[in-house]
Amino acid sequence: MSDYESYLKGSPLEVQVISRRFRIPNITSIDVFLAHDGYKALAKALKMKPEEVINEVKNSGLRGRGGAGFNTGMKWSFVPRQSPKPKYVACNADESEPGTCKDRPLMEYDPHQLLEGIAIAGYAIGSHQGYIYIRGEYRYLMDILDRAIAEAYARGYLGKNILGSGFDFDIATHTGAGAYECGEETALLNSLEGFRGNPRVKPPFPAVVGVYGCPTVVNNVETLSNVPAIILNGADWYAKLGTPKNGGTRLFCLSGHINRPGVYELPMGFPLRRMIEEVGGGIPGGKKLKAVIPGGSSCPVLTADEIDVAMDFDSVAKIGSMLGSGGVVMIDEDTCMVKMALRIMKFYAHESCGWCIPCREGTSWLEALLERFHSGAGLATDADTALDVSYNMLGKTLCPLGDAAALPTISIVKKFRGEFEEHLKLGACPYERKAVAVA
Amino acid sequence: MGFRGQKIEMISDALKSKFDQVIAHYPSKRSAIVPLLVFGQDEIGHVSGELVEEIARRVEVRPIEVEETIGFYSMLHRRPIGKHNFQVCTNVSCMLRGAEEIMAHCERRLGIGHKQTTADGLFSLEEVECLGACCGAPAMQVNYDFYENLTPEKVDALIARLKKGGA
Ligand SMILES: Cc1cc2nc3c(=O)[nH]c(=O)nc-3n(C[C@H](O)[C@H](O)[C@H](O)COP(=O)(O)O)c2cc1C
Ligand code: FES
Questions:
Q1: CB-CB under 8 Å, A140 with B135
Q2: Contact map slice: A 333-372 vs B, CB within 8 A
Q3: Does the residue B79 lie in any domain?
């Protein structure tokens, strides 16, 4: 179980839509859920035409919360409904982007909301089967979801002829077993079929050729958890919570050097500076902020001068980074950015599935280079070599894991070049020397 | 019947019925490979040769195909590991809040390093990637249980409890 306190500290600045039931005792039980508008959206959706459901979601401006930020209703509309093949909904609960821990409370504190969202997605695309692909480490959440699924069947919200509508829908959980790459949608599909989690060539996209060669919608846990509120309250209401083309709210996970780490639901477009200072309570020890990872470790880092940005997909893209998965990591002035780059690269080198050579080789070369550089044994050419290798990974792989490794590296080398020079000059990490001097 | 006609005895009836249930979720039996490996490992402690054989038979593939899949997933162990597997996250959010000290502390207290097991088979230690517990950093998992906002003192208390046979 989670250490509840550490995730849900709460803030008066929150706008709670998908987290509105998190603090209700026993909300994981279906009776309590039903007493708080539970499954009302499903009942409403089943009286609408599937195309109407898709349009409502499209017009709400809901964009994928898994990282890429694609319009969800649009994605659903790509499923060829007339196809005689079965269609599938795959809920991506692989949550493994470093800095990201927001699907966890969604499944822990409101599992039925997610099931309701998946069932509505299934109805909209003409599917009869949903899978929740959940990372292996989240076993206790799988147990929570399995119990919720059993309850939903027992009450007729899943299974045959749901609420007398004639719509049949099944959901099953599916455990992963430790592999970041399986969060990538096509690798997820391979893993779901019982294979190694290597990515597939796109196109065709999963909406057309997905699991078992059938049309499949892959959506993140948070994305699907938003669907019931959209159906209940309408697209306009949802869209207005956020900024143009960025509907609704988002769960932001504030972590790293921040006084009040936690998961907070804030409107799309919420200013990053206020997120850090007012929601997160600033940087511990009165220290200065040095950098921010705005949406999980795959995103280019922002410097302390770049935090006057609205946290929506388009505004963050405009300043050269990404809103990503909602993992906002604060980094204070005493942190070595070369070490940050190294730790991030170590992760991608470990997680590269090895399928595409630029990613497999690039990540391990960069890890070795950064390791050597951070130890003080770097060469004057290393920073440029790191950039060169990174640029040669960008866009050259089947899935974006190669980009995810290259982008933060490029940003750190470019924005914190001075720290590289210092390592070179000193022949050691200046931050570790400082730590020794203080101790 | 298992490998070279050996009888499979280590797989309990409860696990067998769980296997049947899981396989029924999919139009293709092969889909159940990873879940069956995980549930099997939970009961047996590691992915044994017998388990591979049993799963291959049930999902109707050759054992080598199960082996191929296993190699991809870091949570699957082909050899027995300690009863309590300490998995310390040292990824960015945890690193910024002292994960390296936690890892070093575990190494000292348990007397083992990354991917090692104590001689008595009680503990294993592993440095792992982000566990999805970044807001409770530094964090670790012991088997499936999360421990967050760690301090060296909390680690000591946990080790003492586990040594006494606590869960
Ligand atoms: C290497 C890699 C890892 C990913 N991991 C996740 C993940 O853990 N969870 C997730 O929802 N999306 C992840 N994604 C994004 C998915 O590929 C996909 O875009 C997403 O699940 C689509 O759902 P959405 O439209 O609701 O965001 C990952 C992508 C890449 C390239
Ligand atoms: S970085 Fe340690 S749990 Fe996410």
A1: no
A2: 335, 340, 343-344, 347, 350-351, 353
A3: no
* C-beta of residue B102 within 8 angstroms of C-beta of residue B88: yes
Q: Examine the domain organization and report whether B26 and B50 are in the same domain.
A: yes
- Closest Cα in chain A, distance from residue B8 (Å): 23
* Class of residue B119 by CB neighbours under 10 A (exposed 0-12, middle 13-18, buried 19+): exposed
Our mutation pick for probing the ligand 2 site, out of B134, B146, B150, counting the most ligand atoms within 8 A of Cβ, is: B134
Query: B109 CA to chain A: closest CA distance, Å?
Result: 22
Which residues of B49-151 form beta strands (DSSP E)? Answer: 84-89, 116-117, 123-128, 140-142, 145-147
CA distance B36 to chain A (A): 9
pLDDT in tens, chain B (167 residues): 444 545 555 789 999 999 999 999 999 999 999 999 999 999 999 999 999 999 999 999 999 999 999 999 999 999 999 999 999 999 999 999 999 999 999 999 999 999 999 999 999 999 999 999 999 999 999 999 999 999 999 999 999 999 998 65
Any ligand 2 atom below 6 A from CB of B93? yes
In a domain, B77, yes or no: no
How far apart, in whole angstroms, are the C-alpha atoms of residue A181 and residue A198?
7
Q: Which residue has the tokens 């065709």?
A: A204
Segments of chain B assigned E as strands: 84-89, 116-117, 123-128, 140-142, 145-147
Has domain A38-239 been given CATH number 3.30.390.50? no
Topology (CATH level 3) of domain A337-438: de novo design (two linked rop proteins) (1.20.1440)
Interface test with B, best of A339, A343, A367 (most B CBs within 10 A): A343
Give the ipTM of the model, two decimals please.
0.96
Architecture of domain A249-332: Roll (3.10)
Model-level pTM? 0.96
* Closest A-chain CA to B61: A194
